[in-house]
Write a structure and sequence with these properties.
The protein has 12 helices and 21 strands. The protein has 3 domains: 212 residues, 3-Layer(bba) Sandwich (FAD/NAD(P)-binding domain); 112 residues, FAD/NAD(P)-binding domain; 121 residues, 2-Layer Sandwich (Enolase-like, domain 1). The longest helix is centred in the first third of the chain and has 25 residues. The strands form 5 sheets. Strands 1, 2, 3, 4, 5, 6 and 16 form a 7-stranded mixed β-sheet that branches. Helices cover 29% and strands 24% of the residues. The structure holds flavin-adenine dinucleotide and nicotinamide-adenine-dinucleotide (NAD). The site of flavin-adenine dinucleotide has 36 residues, from helix 1, helix 2 and helix 7. Pfam families: Pyr_redox_2, Pyr_redox_dim. Its EC number is 1.8.1.15.
C-alpha cells in the first residue's frame, strides 16, 4: 500500500477529463478512471450511437426512394463493417486520450475504482496495488450506468445494455428492446433500419413519455408502422436464451421470441461505488451528488459535475458543468476554499435535447402540460406543420406517410411575459431546427417581433420555425 498527495484528484475521466489544461501545469493531478478514457459519451453513448444512427437514417431514406421515383434496394446492413468502423474510431480516440494523459508530467492516471476512506481521501486498487490518495480538491465526475430490472430468468437468458450492444458479434434477426425512452427508441431505430425485426416494450402508454404529449403521440404512431411496439406492459419473466432464442413474457399476457434482448430501462448514478458517507458528501434520494450553484458538493473541497449530479443527464450539460468546475477549482487551488468571490455559477436554463431517431425530435423548455401546470391559463400555444411550408412540399407529396414530412413545430409561451416557455420540433434535423428557439429562450427574447427581426432562408425548412413563431405572435396578440 502506498500514499500520494495531489493538488487535485478527478474521479471519472468522461467530462472530468476535459478539466485539466495547461493552466494546471503547475499542479499535481491524479485522474482515476475504472473504464476507458472518454466515459460514456465517447465509448458507449452519444458518439457511437450517433455514428450507428447515420447509416440507419440513410437506410430509412433509401427505403422511401421508391415513392420519389428513385427505387432503391436496401440491405441487409453490413453489421461487422459498421460496428468496426464505429467502435474502431472510438477505441482509437480513447487510447490516444489515455496515452496523452500518461505522457503529461504533472498527471498520474490510476485505472481503477476510487472509493472514499475519509474527507478528501480516496483509495484505489490498480493491479493489486492499493494507493491512498489525498488531495486539496476532489472532483467527482462519475456519471451513471444502465439499470438492470429485477426480472426472473434474465441472468440465465443473457441480455445486452447500451454498454454492450454496440459490440455484438452477430447481427440479430430479432431484437427485443425493453424501455421506450431515448436509448430504447434510438437503438430500436438503428436495428430496425439495419433489417432486424424489433419488438419494443414500454410500461407507459406512449414512447418518449417525458416529451410533449403531441410529440410522444406522433413519435409512437410513426414507429408503430416500422416495428412491433407493446405499450402499457412490462417484462415479467424471461425464458430460454443463453445462446438460443429468448422468450419475453409480458405482464399483459403477451409474449415475443427474440434473438437478443436489450435493456434500456434507465440509468442510475455511480455514486454508490464511492462510499460518499466516508467523506461527508451528500447525495439525494436518486443517488445524485448534491451540488450548489458553483457545482460545489456538501463537503469542503469536493465538486461534482455532469450525470453524477445533474437532473439533466446530457453531454452538453456535463460539458458546461465541467467548464464551471474548471474555473472554480483553479480559483480554489490558488486562493483556498473560502474566497468564493471569483467563482462562477452554472446556468441550467434553456437546456435543449434531441432524440435521434426517425422521426427526429428536438426540444427545449417545458411541455404544454408542464406549462399549464405551472402557469394555468397564462399559457399560449401555437403549431405549424412541416407540410405547410415550401420545403415540406419537397418532403411530402408522395411521402405523405413519412413521419418527418408530417412533423411540426409546437411552441408554448407565457401570455403575461410574451416569452417562450418551451419549443418542440418533429422534423428532419429537428436537433438543428430547434437551435434558434434555444437562443430565444437563453437570451430571454420576446416572441413579438422575433420572426420578423431577421431573414429566414427560402425555401429552407427553417421556415417552419418562422411560421410557428408568427402563429404564436398572433395567438399572444389575440389577447393583448
Ligand atoms: C446510448 C447513449 C446515448 C447517448 N446519447 C446522447 C446524446 O446524443 N446527447 C447527449 O447530450 N447525451 C447523450 N447521452 C448521455 C451522455 O452520454 C452523458 O450525459 C454523458 O456521457 C455524461 O458525462 P459524464 O462525464 O457526466 O459521465 P460519464 O461519461 O458517464 O463519465 C463518468 C466516468 O466515471 C467513471 N467512474 C465512475 N465511478 C468511478 C469510480 N468510483 N472510480 C473511477 N472511475 C469511475 C466511469 O467509468 C466513467 O468513465 C447518451 C447516453 C447513452 C447511454
Ligand atoms: N439523444 C440523447 O440526448 C440521448 C440518447 C440516449 C440517452 N440519453 C440519456 O440517457 C438517459 C437514459 O436513457 P434511457 O432511455 O435508458 O432512460 P429513460 O428513463 O429515458 O427511459 C427508460 C424507459 O424505460 C421504461 N421502463 C423502465 N422499466 C421498464 C420495464 N421493466 N418494462 C418496460 N418499460 C420500462 C420507462 O417507463 C422509461 O420510459 C436519458 O435520460 C438521457 O439523458 C440521451
Amino acid at each position: 500500500m502506498t500514499s500520494e498527495h495531489y493538488d487535485l484528484v478527478i474521479v471519472g475521466a468522461g467530462s472530468g477529463n476535459t478539466i485539466v489544461d495547461d493552466r494546471f501545469d503547475d499542479y499535481r493531478v491524479a485522474l482515476v478512471e475504472r473504464g476507458p478514457l472518454g466515459g460514456t459519451c465517447l465509448n458507449r453513448g452519444c458518439i457511437p450511437s450517433k455514428m450507428f444512427i447515420l447509416p440507419a437514417d440513410v437506410a430509412t431514406a433509401a427505403r422511401r426512394g421508391d415513392a420519389l421515383g428513385v427505387p432503391a434496394t436496401v440491405g441487409p446492413a453490413d453489421w461487422p463493417a459498421i460496428r468496426d468502423r464505429v467502435m474502431g474510431k472510438v477505441d482509437e480516440d480513447a487510447a490516444e486520450g489515455l496515452a496523452g494523459r500518461r505522457e503529461a508530467d504533472n498527471i498520474d492516471v490510476y485505472q481503477g475504482t476510487a472509493t472514499f476512506t475519509g474527507p478528501r481521501q480516496l483509495s484505489v486498487d490498480v493491479d493489486g496495488v492499493r494507493t491512498t490518495i489525498t488531495a486539496d480538491q476532489v472532483v467527482l465526475a462519475t456519471g451513471t450506468r444502465p439499470v438492470v430490472p429485477d426480472v426472473p430468468g434474465l441472468e440465465e437468458a443473457g441480455y445486452e445494455t447500451s454498454d454492450t450492444i454496440m459490440r455484438l458479434e452477430t447481427f440479430p434477426a430479432r431484437l427485443g428492446v425493453i424501455g421506450g425512452g431515448y436509448v430504447g427508441s434510438e437503438l430500436a431505430h438503428v436495428f430496425s433500419s439495419y433489417g432486424a425485426d424489433v419488438v419494443q416494450v414500454e410500461g407507459s402508454d406512449t414512447l418518449l413519455t417525458g416529451q410533449d404529449d403531441d410529440v410522444a403521440a406522433h413519435f409512437t404512431a410513426a414507429v408503430k408502422e416500422r416495428w412491433d411496439v407493446r405499450l402499457g406492459t412490462e417484462l415479467e419473466k424471461v425464458s430460454g436464451g443463453a445462446g438460443g432464442p429468448i422468450t419475453l413474457h409480458l405482464a399483459d399476457g403477451g409474449e415475443a421470441e427474440v434473438d437478443v434482448l436489450l435493456l434500456a430501462t434507465g440509468r442510475r448514478p455511480n455514486s454508490d461505488l464511492l462510499d460518499l458517507d466516508a467523506a461527508g458528501v451528500e447525495a439525494d434520494d436518486h443517488g445524485r451528488i448534491v451540488v450548489d450553484e458553483h457545482q460545489h458538493a456538501s463537503a469542503a473541497g469536493v465538486w461534482s459535475l455532469g450525470d453524477a449530479s445533474s437532473e439533466e443527464p446530457l453531454k452538453h450539460v456535463a460539458n458546461q458543468d465541467a467548464r464551471v468546475v474548471q474555473h472554480n477549482v483553479l480559483r480554489a487551488l490558488r486562493a483556498g476554499d473560502d474566497d468564493r468571490s471569483s467563482w462562477v455559477t452554472s446556468d441550467h436554463t434553456a437546456v435543449p435535447q434531441a432524440v435521434f431517431a426517425h422521426p427526429q425530435v428536438g426540444r427545449v423548455g417545458l411541455t404544454e402540460a408542464e406549462a399549464r401546470d405551472e402557469h394555468g391559463d397564462d399559457v399560449a400555444v401555437a403549431r405549424h406543420d412541416v407540410a405547410d411550408v415550401a420545403y415540406g412540399w419537397a418532403l411530402a407529396g408522395h411521402l405523405d406517410g413519412d413521419a418527418e414530412a408530417q412533423g411540426f413545430v409546437k411552441l408554448v409561451a407565457r401570455r403575461s411575459t410574451g416569452r417562450l416557455l418551451g419549443a418542440h420540433v418533429v422534423a428532419p434535423m429537428a436537433s438543428v431546427l430547434v437551435q434558434p428557439l434555444v437562443m430565444a429562450m437563453a437570451h430571454d427574447l420576446p416572441v413579438a417581433g422575433l420572426a420578423r427581426s431577421m431573414y429566414w432562408i427560402h425555401p429552407a425548412l427553417t421556415e417552419v420555425v418562422e411560421s410557428a413563431l408568427l402563429a404564436l405572435e398572433e395567438e399572444l396578440g389575440a389577447d393583448g
